[in-house]
Task: structure prediction
Amino acid sequence: MAHTPRKIFKVLVANRGEIAVRIIQAAHELNMQAVAIYTDADAGNLACQLADESYRVGENLAYKSYLNIENVLKIAKEAKVDAIHPGYGFLSENAAFAKKVEEAGIIFVGPSSDTIATMGDKAKALEQAKKSQVPTMPSTPVLQDLKQALEQAEQIGYPLLIKAIAGGGGKGIRFVANEKALKEQFNVAIAEATSAFGNGGVYLEKYLENAKHIEVQVLGDGENVIHLYDRECSMQRRRQKVLEEAPSPSLDSQTREALCACALRMAQEVGYKGAGTLEFLYDSKSKGFYFLEMNTRIQVEHAITEMVTGVDLVRQMLRIADGEPLAYKQSDISLRGHSIEVRINAEDPQNNFFPSPGQITKLQCPTGSGIRLDSMLFSGRTIPPFYDSLVAKLIVYDQTRPFALSKLKRALGEFKIEGVKTTIGLFKKLIAHERVQAGDYSIHFLEDYIGGKYGV
Amino acid sequence: MHEVISPIPGTFYRKPNPDAAPFVEVGSQVQPDTTLCLVEVMKTFNEIKAEVAGKIVEIKAENEQFVNPGDVLFVVG
Result:
């Protein structure tokens, strides 16, 4: 046996899709058993096939199944698991869920419920950033009324964003170009936040015209914390990431070290445990970076960091949760080569990215050195209409960024998914664009590109 | 009578969110641009409009029911 678990002999994966598959595979490599959960639409999916046991968690709608804390805990007890890995999305950053898992005497694979409650709350995380002397976007406290909003806006300067404190995943954000727009949108934003998140708290934040989204991966065991460098995730549509690369092509080494040191300091000051990500906006003109928020979970794009650092993040999460100290020192971590991930979604780029659930009639996957496919696909499988449209992540690794792009082009050419529409074709065109080739794209690039600004 | 048909497969929601009141009830007066329901597919929410002016005569789908393209959702009279 290559590895003997200490406390976690059986782990429940409280998720679905490709990340459930990824976690089950990591658990098996550590000689842990894995338990999958599924809905009617997900019965027989790849996670269920690979897991040692699988249990029906509820009806198809997410709030009746994957988001239902009681149902998930009931299965955890029935299956007698030692730990629960929440993956990303669903309950992964739900402090109440983490607390109930802890109270049930089950190990939550991730930070403590207290850390999630602090760092998962945008306002509290920003306070912590300021305490840790990490630069933050000029912003206001939670606003009481329009009068206060107008006064504060005057101090920061337009353009601005109105942000909901309970928002996330790109939701609950409104752009205001000037005072008139703020007057028009302020109360609408509060009503929208109340309706969408059950919390009407909003604040204002400065808006950068050509911002890049750069994030830093951290890993801790509650005492020692290290960073695993940066990822650039500026390729976004409706504030959802679609392509990510590590390391960022935009940072010089001095800025990279400064950014990573800042992120690390903040994670160290909260005694972070598990895998986490600190997100920043970066202004390449001034080389300024500003902390946005922290994700207290594994992320979709974790694989590119794994490729360039050689650290298996999901394995490390499980080992840390199992009670092992962090297996790496900061000096063990260095960057090697370049990695790019594209998110393959069952969507139709020709029809405003309309979702395309349905049966996979044919599947041909790219292969070869430096190609990794994290996926839930197999031929004949039906992609259900109830959940996220992410069906696969194509990850490439090569010595340099130009070679990684060339490999991605080759891999996308080999990748065939029939039966549903996917975003493969979009990526083929996108990565040929000179701005992408040069690494010169901001968080607004993709929407401008789709809108025809670059002559497409 | 006008039948409002789902153009897409997805989950039928009568309310904008779980705590809100339904968009319309039987007897509600509607205009062509009145939103009658949402149909969600893969986290994309699509507003379905009445398309005609009139009164809601019948609501054919149940809240949170899965509907297919071509299913009748409402009858407007």
Summary: DSSP finds 15 helices and 22 strands in chain A. The first strand of chain A starts at residue 10 and ends at 13. Chain A touches chain B through 15 residues (CB under 8 Å). Chain A has a mean pLDDT of 95.
